[in-house]
Amino acid sequence: MRTSLWGILSVFLLSGVISLPLSLNAKTKSKKIVLMSTESPPFLSESMKDQGAGIFALRKLLKKAGYDLEVRFAPWERAKVIARSDASVGGIFPYAAKDLADFLYSKPIYRAKWVIVERKQNPITWDKIEDLSKFTMGNVTGVELRPGIKELAETNKLKVENASTDLNNLLKLANKRIDFITMDATVFKYQMWVEPKLQSFREALQINPKFITVTEYGLALKKSPDHEALLKVFNKVSSFEEANRHIDFYLEHLQDSSSKKK
Asked: Looking at residue 99, what is its pLDDT?
């Protein structure tokens, strides 16, 4: 009788120990949001630690809003199609232009200079955006043309050649197939720093002193009551200052780790 009683108590106590964490997890479990993005290291990259500096920062901000983050990658135009058509995907990150009518947009969380990259032996001289019309520009397929540049391209006043990646775009410029490209300043510096195919061109390419614009980036979600509620909280807990702290932290540690490897 004594043995059976202890057996019953043991089972009861063991079941209580097992069930307690499960019930606690059920109460504290975060919601999950799935987003589409594209390759643009060091900010966005499927192969980088934490998927790049931008997603590292976004994950921190979404955690404060009560959400875990899953990111899937595709070329930018394809990423937008998937975000629209796949019911499991909630939106895209980052947006630069509010060009999707069926999406909700967060406030911007990051600003970056969008610059002209040129060959040092053939610098681009310009005062106003229209001065660029006599050149041939390189762009990455699916990347939104910035204001001014976009209008020139749409009216056929500026010839734009597309490349599949930033690396291929930079190689076209270095090999004199185009006159200039426009891109994020940090992405340019990163590409020149890490890409073996660009090592021989490090002294050949530079950023033009005049930048095109300052681009603001944020989070875009498909319209729904849940996403509207999420963005309301996200906008309260996020800020340029905090996003910049996370991004700077990531980039500093990225540079430190790369320096140690060398």
From this structure: 86
Q: CB 87: neighbour CB atoms within 10 A?
A: 6
HEC per residue, 194-244: HCHHHHHHCCCEEECCCCCEEEEEEEEEECCHHHHHHHHHHHHHCCHHHHH
Strands (E), 120-208: 136-140, 159-163, 180-184, 205-207
Angle at 253 between CA 247 and CA 254, to 5 degrees: 85
Assign 5 to helix, strand or coil. Answer: helix
* Mean pLDDT value across the chain: 88
Contact indicator for 127, 108 with CB cutoff of 8 Å: no
Beta 159-163 vs 136-140: how paired, if at all?
Answer: parallel
Which residues does residue 110 pair with via DSSP β-bridges, in sequence order? 217
Per-residue pLDDT tens digits for 203-215: 999 999 999 999 9
Q: Does the global pTM surpass 0.90?
A: no
CA distances from 5 to 1, 14, 34, 90 (A): 6, 14, 50, 53
* Whole-angstrom distance, CA of residue 175 vs CA of residue 152: 24
Q: How far apart (Å, rounded) are the C-alpha atoms in residues 185 and 176? A: 20
**Residue pLDDT, tens place only, 150-190:** 999 999 999 999 999 999 999 999 999 999 999 999 999 99
Helix (H) or strand (E) holding 67: strand 67-73
